[in-house]
Each structure stands twice: as C-alpha cells, then as structure tokens.
Amino acid sequence: MNIAFYPYWAAKTLLSLINVIYIMVITTFIYSQTGSVLYAAMFPFIRIIARITAGFTLPLLVKRFSFSRLLISIPIAKASLMTGIAISLNHLTSQLPLLLIGVVILSFLEGWESPLLDTLTPRLVQGEDLVKTNSLLSFSNQTVSIVGFAMTGFAVMNWGASQTFWAATSLSWAVLIFLIALGSLTREIEQPEKSIVTRNVLRKGWSMLWKNPTLRLITLMDIAQALAGSIWIGAITLAFAKEALARGEGWWGLMNSSYAAGTMLGGILALALAKRIQKHLIASMTMGSLLLSLMTIVYGLNSLPWLALALCILMGPVYQIRDTAQQTAFQRSVPAESLSQVYAAHGVLISTVMSVSIVIFGLVVDQLDVRWVYLIGGALFIVSAICSISLSRVHRNEHIVKHTKNM
C-alpha cells in the first residue's frame, strides 16, 4: 500500500473524532446557555446550509488553486478558527450570534475539505486494495465516532465545554501535521491545467452525475438511502423506543450502542470479504439493500425489545458491506481529475435530501404512528435495490458493446 495512505488514514480518522467532539460540545454549550431546543437545533441546520453552499463553490476553488495548496491552506484556516473559538468560548455566553458566525465559516471550510479528501482515496490506492481501503476507512471512522460520543459526554460533564473543545482544537492541529506530511508525499497529485472560471466549471460535476449512467444510478441509490437513513436520527429512534417498545431513554441508548457495535463488526467483516466484494460489487449492493429493506420493515413492525436490539446489530454488517461496494463503484466510475467536482455535487445533493427528509419524517411521526417511518424506510431500500439491478443491466450492455467493437 502507498506510504502516503497512512498519514491520509490518520487525518481522516482524526477528522471523524473532531467532528463528533465539535458537534456535541457546541450543541451542549448552546443549549446550556439558552435552555432552548430551537437555538440548539439551529446549529446543525446552519451547519448543513453552509456545507451545501460550500459544495456549490468548491469547483471554483479547484480550478483556481492547486490541489496541494488547498490540501494545506483549508486545514490551517480550520485549526486557526477552532483555536479562536476555543479561546473565546467562555466569553460567548451573551454573544451567541458571533459563535454561529464562527460555525458558518467552519462549516464552509468543512464543506470544501471533505470532498477534496475523498478524492484522494482512489488516487492513493488502486485495484483490489480499493475495497479493502474503503472498508478500513469506514471501520476506523465508525470506531472513533463511537468512542468520541462516549468520551465527549463524559468530558463535558466533568471538565466543561471549553476544556473539551480544546481537545478538538489540539487534534485539528495534529490533522494539519498529517496533511502536510501527505502533501510532501503526493506532490505529483495536482488538478489538471488551470482554466478561466466559467459556469461550465460549476456545472461539470452535476453534468457527470446525470450523463454517466453508472453515476446516475448510484446517486439515485444514495438519495433513496439518504432518505431512509433519516429514520435513525435520535428523536425518531427515541419515539420508537417509547411508543413501539414501551421502553425509556436507557433502552434507546442501548439500541444506539447495539447499532454501533454492529457497524464495527460490519467493518471487520467487510475487510475480511474485501476480495469477494471487489468481484461482486453490484451483487453486494443489491443483496445489501434487499436485506436492509427486510430488516427495517421487520424492525418497524416489531414490539419485542430484544429483537429490536438483535436487528440493530445485524443491520451494521449489511450496511457496511453494501456501503463499501457502493463507494468503490462510485470511485471507479469517475476520472481522477473530475473527482472533486463530482464529489462536491454529490455531497450537495445528499445533504439537501437528508435535511429535507428529517423534516418530512418528523412530520410523519407527529401525524402518524412512528412505525410508518420504518415501513417507508424499508420501501426506500427496495428502490435502492431496483436501482442496483438496473446498474447491472447497464454494465452488461456496456460489456456487450465493448465486446462487439473488439470483434
């Protein structure tokens, strides 16, 4: 494996941990200062909007500046801003608008950084190692996220929001060091020639998502799965635990822990099955979506708490295998020089869908029984499976066309 992968892996893993600490600390801080759920809810909403906007503007940055320059300058800006927030956090009690302005800027930087880093995976790792790499990245990110959620709650209670935020700030400077090392090892990775910025630059990623049949179908699968994924947000799962399972917050936490444990198990399983997944990407996506659909529907109809826990654990491996196959197929379908633009457009689309779906499913829970949310989610996974079957036909037709041309 390319030696440059290791600082990249370290940076991606630490960023997942920073993200958890940052979200929990800021949400807790806003709620403790205002006592308002509405104010606390404004934080993730503003964050999503800022990241969506950043996704639209990323292609302009990519065309204007070199990849290596962006790889270093964005993390420097992030680490500097987080340091400023850490220094002034205790003084922002009466200045929450200033904190939200900082959140907007930080979210903009995240919206630029995330797709840029995602483009590096297929550049650093090729061939059969790509599935294994995606599995490894997913497993490590999920693991540190679980640890982060557990440790951050403890840290905030015992040390306070400000001291805990300093931990995230320190880690952001560590990420910068890893990315500097990565930049020195990948000087050859640059974007193609710089050109005059036009509307075509902004449209390129969107155009590729629509015109490339493989990308179009995988994106439709991602949209269906993003809609279905919203059924697992905290408020809905808590409502399910109380209304459908007749259990309280303690059982809700146990359900979340069970799903997290299943996801970690899935990461290990995906690593072990990397070669098989590599050979059967579309089959892995199809079977994964169908199994998730079945388990989600059974989960929604179920009233037995222990069966709910078992299903939460079983969903983790299925989700990981399907997601790894899907991510690999997506990366293989995009030329390296266009990855950042395609990822930016894809990220904007999925973030928008998720933000809208959270509101829709919230209304469904308020107006109907919470079980309906999981039945709808199961139907959406079936839509994803249908898209993967269509993808198989597209690949089969492309193979026939290539074979005919070579005759």
Describe the structure.
The protein has 407 residues and is an all-alpha fold. It contains 16 helices and no strands. It has helices spanning 5-34, 37-64, 67-88, 96-118, 121-124, 129-159, 161-185, 199-211, 213-229, 234-243, 249-272, 274-279, 281-301, 305-332, 339-367, 371-406. Helix 2 (37-64) packs across helix 4 (96-118) and helix 3 packs antiparallel against helix 4 (96-118). The radius of gyration is 21 Å and the shape is globular. Residues 191-199 have low confidence and may be disordered.
SSE class: mainly alpha
Mean pLDDT: 80
Shape: globular
Q: Strand-and-helix sequence, N→C?
A: HHHHHHHHHHHHHHHH
Q: How much beta, percentage-wise?
A: under 5%
Q: How far is it from the N-terminal to the C-terminal residue, by CA?
A: 37 Å
Give the uncertain stretches in residue-range form: 191-199
| Rg, alpha carbons | 21 Å
What is the helix tally? 16
Total beta strand runs: 0
Helix content: over 70%
Largest sheet: none
